[in-house]
Amino acid sequence: MTDKSIFSQLTSIDVNDHIDKKETGKDRFGRAITLSYLSWAWAWDYFKKACPDAKYEIRHWDTRPYLYDENLGYMVETSITANGETHAMWLPVMDGTNSAMKATQQTFATKRKDGTTYNKVVAPATMFDINKTIMRCLVKNMAMFGLGLYIYAGEDLPSDNEEPQTITQSPYAPTHHNPARDIHPDDWMTINAFAGELARAESVAAIQTLVNGQRGNPHLNEMLAMAGKRKAEIIDQLSEQQGE
User: Fold this and answer.
1) What is the pTM of this model?
2) What pairing do the DSSP bridges indicate for beta strands 85-92 and 117-122?
3) HSE (CB half, 13 Å, CA atoms) of 170?
4) Per residue in 114-146, pLDDT tens?
5) Strands 67-69 and 73-82, bridge-based pairing
């Protein structure tokens, strides 16, 4: 161990050469949705070199490495202990469009930008999906110790390399100067998920239900601003339809 802390060492590592990008489709505004993944093998290689005593654990529920609820879907949880410190992390099992997967196929109507609708199908989860999520959860778990943390914070490079550059945000995302500086990575993911739910909401009442479910969230003000934009959009759409 050098005079830099392990966290400082890990946050300064540039892992961009080992990030896989996958285009999973387009959002309702026609923009490509691209997800970034850090290879778990490379992540663990970097992590173990910095923390040789590191150990990980995959949580089990009744011998199963996942928690399942028929209404909510699957959730996995991991924990890592290194340098006498333990961090836990959890992740829902999702398809390529970040829709929660369940034991059976789901079909629901989704509205396009032009107002037309189509049936979106979410396939049932398999053990392959669960295993993949567990490994992604471990990578996110390592980010709690600093490795690749800048990716979850929405930055292109670790802070020791150059001034961070923020990624393109959702049209309903918070607009303050640099959300990566102000929002914990777990809360940032929560806001992104909230933005996705807003994009699928088709009524003001549905948006209000979403907002009510976020009471107590430390970033409720940002979410309220996002919800306000979506409400205004729906009201404008209704006004246009009534004027036709």
Assistant:
1) 0.61
2) unpaired
3) 25
4) 778 888 889 999 999 999 999 999 999 999 999
5) antiparallel
